[in-house]
Amino acid sequence: RWRAEGEQGLHDRSSRPMTTPHRTAAAVEARVCRLRQDRKLGPARLGPILGLPASTVHRVLARHGLNRLAFMDRPTGQVIRRYERARPGELVHVDVKKLGRIPDGGGHKTLGRQAGRATRSGMGFDYIHSAVDDHSRLAYSEIHPDEKVATCAGFLTR
């Protein structure tokens, strides 16, 4: 690469091939997708109709997001996108997960059920507050000692 391209030949680049000569033709892919949406058949049934291996049919369906029948509306055959908002922040999913604290040195698996029961009884819980933006799928989480109103409101503000 150094002789052919000089300094530019040493920079990082994608390992994706420039061309894919054996890729299924666009017209054949369109036919696979159309039959999938019209007949609701799987790759093993569509393959013989199209004269293609089932693995090729599956790869084409996966590439176009049609690999699961559950992803399609049964009567129309259109792909269903359930939650996708137009703008970031329009819909934010917020959740709080309660996790028990594990003491230093391990829990009962290491120390036994009764080991240190008197000193470790007040370990308590940590609460993981998480928010996911519906448009961008950006996730944000914080760990807090409680799940009170003020804590949740502060988390949502941040």
Helix-strand string = HHHHEHHEEH
Number of helices: 7
Q: What is the share of helical residues?
A: 25-40%
How confident overall, as mean pLDDT?
85
Largest sheet: 3 strands, antiparallel
Outline of this structure?
By secondary structure, this protein is an alpha+beta fold. The chain contains 7 helices and 3 strands; from the N terminus they run ααααβααββα.
Describe this entry's structure for a reader.
The chain is 34% helix and 15% strand. By secondary structure, it is an alpha+beta fold. It has 2 domains: 2-71, no CATH class; 92-157, no CATH class. Strands 1-2-3 form a 3-stranded antiparallel sheet, with helices on one face. Helix 3 (43-50) crosses helix 4 (54-63). It is extended.
